[in-house]
Amino acid sequence: MSGNIAGKVAIIGAGITKFGELFEQSYNDLVVEAAFEAYEDAGVSGDDVEAAWLGTYLPLGWGFDGTGGPSLAEALNLYPKPVSRVANYCTTGMEAVRMAAMAVASGMHDVVLAVGAEKMREVPPRGSLVAQHVEKLHPMYSKGRTAPGSFAVLARRYFEEFGADKEDLAEVAVKNHYHGSLNKRAHFRKEITKEQVLKAPPVTEPLGLYDCCPTTDGAAAVVLCRAELAETRFDKKDYVLIDGMGLSCATGYITTAFNPRFSFIGFEATREAARQAYEQSGVTNPREEIDVAEVHDCFTITEILNYEDLGFVEKGEGPGFVKSGASRLGGELPVNTSGGLKSCGHPIGATGARVVADLTHQLLGRCGDRQVKGAKRALGHTLGGPGAVSSVFVLSKN
Amino acid sequence: MAGITSVGAYIPFHRLGGETVRSVWGAGSPKASRPLAGFDEDPITMGVEALINAAGWGDSVVDSLYFASTSHPYAEKSNASVLAAAADLPETLFTLDAGGSVRAGTSALKAACDAIEAGSSQSAAVVAAEKRPSLPGSPDELSLCDGAAAVLLGKGEDVAAEIEAVYSWSEDFIDRWRLPGEGAVSAGDAKFIQDYGYVRQSVATVEGLLNQTGATREDIARVLVYAPDARTHAAITRKLGFPDSAYPENPLIARLGDSGAAAPLLALVDALQSAEPGEHIIVAGHGSGGEAILLRATDKVHSLRAQRGLGWSVERAQPIRNYGQWLKFNGLSPEEEIRPFTSPSILWKENRATMRLMAGVCRACGELQYPRQQVCNACGARDEWDERKLGRRGKIFTFVHDYLPPSPEGFITMATVELEGGGRFYGQMTNHVKDDVHIGMECELTFRLLHQGDGYYNYFWKLRPAD
């Protein structure tokens, strides 16, 4: 890679809606709420925004909004500016931020907006989990596949190779529900016990109900600008800088499960995206250099694999890392202080933008009970498709 | 002289037990055990299974295929062509669906034999398969049998049983019938159709063959006749007057039930797999007249014992859990409405991959990929592929029991299997016991009905535990 994003782009505003089953709000309501919160935080208006990117994964899967740039332009009256929609499985929201950051870094724009949004609960949750593969996608290869099923096969293989078990997975669920209980925007705000997790009905064995993220509505937005403008134009004393960002498509969406080189104990996409982001940001020892992280815990097993693929621990040491409390609030590297996808929720297109917005709040010390004290450097990670694509951001306080 | 060169049979593993039926309807022989097709099986999938058992996994030289059934899944559209694709038969192929009578199996056999004799076919496959229709609570529920048989025909050294003569005759007669769309077979007056139909006609069929060939009853080692039930079978054999030793001790009609058009071929396959060289065998089909076929086992007949026949299937019989499962298998209990996406143009474009299981081997780097892309996912070479058929067997690398997708079983087990010969297959398991599934378990590919998105049948391969 010849370029480096480090130091070029500042995040000066962040907005996140309440996550949950938001039957009273429309897709546009969520987009407006997130964007205007980010505007206010940044001290800008829509007039300042030169271009915008919208991340929505599957517009026609459960609603009708978000099919293209005009969905965002219309909701925010950004006419006639350049607005585009991006989609990249569960990295979608992060991809909107990455595109926006690239536009700033290229010198094409000074101030841009990135929004991630997904309104999933206009249909029953089953519609999003199952229908995607049955009612859509390949007539043969996809039938019988579901999102949790596609990760359960990794759990099964991981158990086989490292002797881990469902109790190890439960540690992740308990931790993230605890974190979610402290986050007023989280979908689930109740703590759960290990016994509850282990007794929950099976969804895709060995994953049970509490090993899975919920089906959630939500939106998040960030306002980005050329780094020097944060202070000179917007009078910011505290803001966040993008130190590195990587994206990797390392396997195929359908073919991963057929691929003889896929290990089923981790994700090459995560390792490669992290390598890119670490190289740009100069991170060599993530466990020591990262103060707080939001990683993709669509299912509990995924968070354990992420610890290893992101280089927090060696392969096979993920269960020990969560069990030791290292990734819990107060531990050496708190992970998913928002509650993660598991407890905060996972509106697919919103998640990546929410991760960046949430880490912005952490780095600026705004997280109250769940604040990681003195956090200077943060890592954000999303993974999608299932495991075919990953995005990693490294952020720091100015 | 034309003759049989290979055989195969398949009986679905599921059994509906008499006790299960009694517990619901209060009637039904407690000893009965009816083989029934699973929810993902039909005459096409069972026919594929029998055909692969006879013709092997790929590299077949069959040039004509006859598919006999009274329960063809498609009333309009070739059924045989699905068998041909799934069994990976050459594309230069004559296909024919034969139906309309439970006699269709022997009629197809005669037609194939004539084609071989005439020289228009060098290698013919005859497949007969049935999913027999019956209504809940009816006696047919326990007396019918689902299953399939296949025989390959050719000439020359490989012939294991020569077809010496065929006798056919026709007489319009109403014994059992079914109109389009009806879910059960109707029958005429029981006494009349037994005496004047099954017994009189079967005797006329077999005696017609004896008269035509000059053979005597003492020349014949085995006589296999069709009957709708064991009692009628006994009445026919009594009247036919062969020595008792010529009749199977425990005929298929008593062991398994009435498998319609598949019955004569199933009986023939079973007999040939235990026949000795030199034995003469008569197999007769029945229906508005009949066919009788005289075969003589050659010194190659023992070679047929290596094929998967009835024994292989029957050893794997498993009673279904309850009557509800039987209703689910037959679509008689409403399921969650969900319409799977499919597309005729996709099925056509990808036919070699999805039906014939052709993977790509990259000429530039040797990588085997399934399903393959145009550009090699290992080295980036474009369109540098050699086709290679996936192996049939492999070991489970990882798996999941998934309770989310709709399924008559309440869950779907998906597994990734490392195949012998390279590559992986990822798909649904079938005929498995949930708690027995484990990493390293041996599986083999089996052709099944995946779904009916868009209204037509979408067939694909599933994974079945193997020994």
Topology:
The complex is a heterodimer of chains A (398) and B (467).
Chain A: E1 9-16, H1 27-42, E2 51-55, H2 59-62, H3 69-76, E3 83-86, H4 92-105, E4 111-119, H5 125-129, H6 131-134, H7 147-162, H8 166-181, H9 194-199, E5 202-205, E6 207-208, E7 217-226, H10 227-232, E8 240-249, H11 268-281, H12 286-289, E9 292-294, H13 300-309, H14 318-323, H15 340-343, H16 348-363, E10 377-384, E11 389-397
Parallel strand pairs in A: 2-3, 2-4, 9-10
Antiparallel strand pairs in A: 1-7, 1-8, 4-7, 5-6, 8-11, 10-11
Helix pairs in contact in A: 1-3, 4-16, 8-13
Chain B: E1 3-10, E2 14-17, H1 18-25, E3 33-35, H2 43-55, E4 64-68, H3 80-86, E5 94-98, H4 104-118, E6 124-130, H5 140-143, E7 147-154, E8 161-170, E9 176-177, E10 186-187, H6 190-213, E11 222-224, H7 230-240, H8 252-255, H9 263-272, E12 280-286, E13 289-297, H10 310-314, E14 318-319, H11 323-329, H12 344-349, H13 351-354, E15 358-362, E16 368-369, E17 385-389, E18 393-402, E19 412-419, E20 424-428, E21 442-451, E22 458-465
Parallel strand pairs in B: 2-14, 4-5, 4-6, 11-12
Antiparallel strand pairs in B: 1-7, 1-8, 2-3, 6-7, 8-13, 9-10, 12-13, 15-16, 15-17, 18-19, 18-21, 19-20, 21-22
